[in-house]
């Protein structure tokens, strides 16, 4: 009975105490930046010699835009700036443009599944670069930025090579013309058991065919599935469409590796087997599932502050599909807006878990620490009082939550940043995940 009471209490606190609570030296110090758009960058062989083509895709969901009513329609406008820097942070090239969106229905303005996608190409000499994409909403003046390191390879005319891999939501063919609908977010957990990939093979060695091997790894490096096929070539540049199965993949992050094996004719007339490969990351998330969840089993373990331990144990022992169902049902019951795509409570909870891992990890993962536990349950404190060098006292911190009239004291018992809670939260800390 006491256990259920505290679960209800934590849910109430999660809903009412938001991450935006003002407090010094936490949150504002290094906030979690959640981009309001998606970006992808792919390299391909250029028609010009000595350079490589870099295609940059930018996708902005409608729900991230600020629409205003203009007569009978709703309009939104945002700016996109793409900057490419070399390794010395010197600007190499830049492109800037404005996107204008107009819809007739209000429901479209808050849609999480409708978005605006555009793409720009750059010609770069092979090397390492930093790519920065900035999206700024014209109405709200809110901006979001993504920065990524990009390796631009050399596509020469003497080696069999593969381009980078594009993930597609779907690929359609009409009278021999192929239409590709890119999946820029890289989330393939939309309900289908497969997804498409598209890449180019540069057949400069003149092979008639090539053996293609596709391998999917989880983030631990374990192989979770493999497949192979024979691809006919013929042309010097050949577009290859592949299908990757997802039915057996649980929620998480994955790496896809495509390897092509072919025979190369040596100068002495003999043949040797050669390989070319490319890889990319993708993720499996169910609709409404936070991006921060990269491992379902771990996400279940992290429920210990909000779920009954018997239910957690049942989830751990369940088969894949049952485990997924139990997890979804748990959060569905706690969804404050059940008629929307998002589950704000789940997003809030796992955002706090991510923050705890980033800031409170020491001898153990941050979410398992005492500071992490308090942060996940109550959010950022209203005030932090730090005492790192008091005479005749071990380092300690006092976290105060004015809204709930609570105070927590943490003492660094070992002197190595291992802060322990001195006033326990009664029964809130459950049995640790095994």
Q: Can you walk me through this structure?
A:
It is built from 7 helices and 21 strands. With 434 residues, the protein is an alpha+beta fold. It has 3 domains: 2-30 and 291-421, no CATH class; 35-154, Immunoglobulin-like, CATH 2.60.40; 156-289, Immunoglobulin-like (Sandwich), CATH 2.60.40. The strands form 5 sheets. Strands 3, 4, 5, 7 and 8 form a 5-stranded antiparallel sheet that branches. Strands 9, 10, 11, 12 and 15 form a 5-stranded antiparallel sheet that branches. Strands 14-13-16-17 form a 4-stranded antiparallel sheet, with no helix packed on it. α4 runs antiparallel to α5 (320-333) and α6 (344-359) packs antiparallel against α7.
List the helices and strands and how they pair.
Blueprint: H1 2-16, E1 38-45, E2 52-61, E3 68-70, E4 73-85, E5 91-103, H2 106-109, E6 115-124, E7 127-137, E8 143-152, E9 161-162, E10 166-174, E11 177-182, E12 194-202, E13 209-218, E14 223-232, E15 237-245, E16 252-265, E17 271-284, H3 296-301, H4 309-317, H5 320-333, H6 344-359, H7 370-378, E18 383-387, E19 396-401, E20 406-412, E21 419-421
Antiparallel strand pairs: 1-2, 2-6, 3-4, 4-5, 4-7, 7-8, 9-12, 10-11, 10-12, 12-15, 13-14, 13-16, 16-17, 18-19, 19-20, 20-21
Helix pairs in contact: 4-5, 6-7
């Amino acid at each position: 009975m006491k256990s259920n009471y505290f679960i209800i209490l934590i849910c109430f606190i999660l809903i009412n105490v938001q991450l935006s609570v003002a407090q010094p030296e936490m949150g504002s110090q290094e906030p979690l930046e959640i981009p309001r758009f998606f970006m992808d960058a792919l390299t391909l062989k250029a028609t010009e010699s000595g350079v490589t083509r870099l295609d940059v895709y930018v996708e902005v969901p409608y729900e991230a835009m600020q629409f205003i009513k203009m007569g009978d329609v709703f309009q939104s406008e945002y700016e996109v700036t793409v900057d490419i820097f070399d390794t010395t942070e010197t600007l190499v090239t830049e492109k800037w443009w404005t996107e204008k969106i107009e819809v007739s229905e209000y429901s479209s303005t808050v849609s999480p599944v409708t978005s605006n996608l555009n793409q720009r190409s750059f010609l770069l000499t092979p090397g390492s670069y930093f790519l920065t994409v900035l999206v700024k909403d014209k109405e709200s003046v809110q901006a979001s930025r993504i920065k990524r390191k990009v390796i631009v390879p050399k596509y020469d005319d003497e080696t069999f090579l593969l381009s980078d891999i594009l993930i597609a939501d779907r690929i359609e063919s009409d009278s021999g013309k192929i239409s590709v609908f890119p999946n820029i977010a890289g989330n393939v957990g939309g309900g289908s058991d497969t997804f498409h990939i598209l890449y180019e093979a540069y057949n400069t060695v003149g092979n008639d065919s090539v053996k293609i091997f596709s391998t999917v790894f989880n983030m631990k490096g374990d192989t979770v599935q493999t497949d192979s096929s024979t691809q006919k070539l013929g042309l010097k540049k050949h577009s290859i469409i592949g299908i990757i199965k997802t039915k057996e993949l649980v929620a998480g992050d994955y790496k896809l590796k495509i390897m092509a094996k072919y025979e190369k004719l040596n100068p002495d007339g003999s043949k040797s087997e050669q390989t070319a490969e490319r890889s990319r990351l993708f993720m499996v998330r169910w609709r409404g599932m936070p991006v921060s969840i990269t491992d379902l089993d771990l996400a279940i373990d992290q429920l210990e502050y909000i779920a009954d331990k018997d239910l957690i144990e049942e989830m751990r022992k369940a088969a894949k599909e049952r485990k997924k169902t139990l997890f979804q049902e748990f959060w569905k019951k706690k969804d404050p807006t059940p008629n929307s795509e998002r589950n704000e409570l789940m997003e809030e909870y796992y955002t706090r878990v991510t923050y705890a891992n980033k800031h409170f990890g020491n001898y153990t993962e941050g979410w398992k620490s005492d500071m992490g536990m308090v942060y996940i349950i109550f959010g950022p404190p209203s005030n932090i009082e730090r005492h790192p060098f008091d005479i005749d006292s071990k380092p300690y911190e006092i976290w105060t939550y004015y809204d709930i009239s609570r105070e927590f004291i943490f003492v660094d018992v070992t002197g190595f940043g291992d802060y322990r809670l001195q006033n326990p939260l009664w029964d809130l800390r459950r049995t640790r995940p095994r």
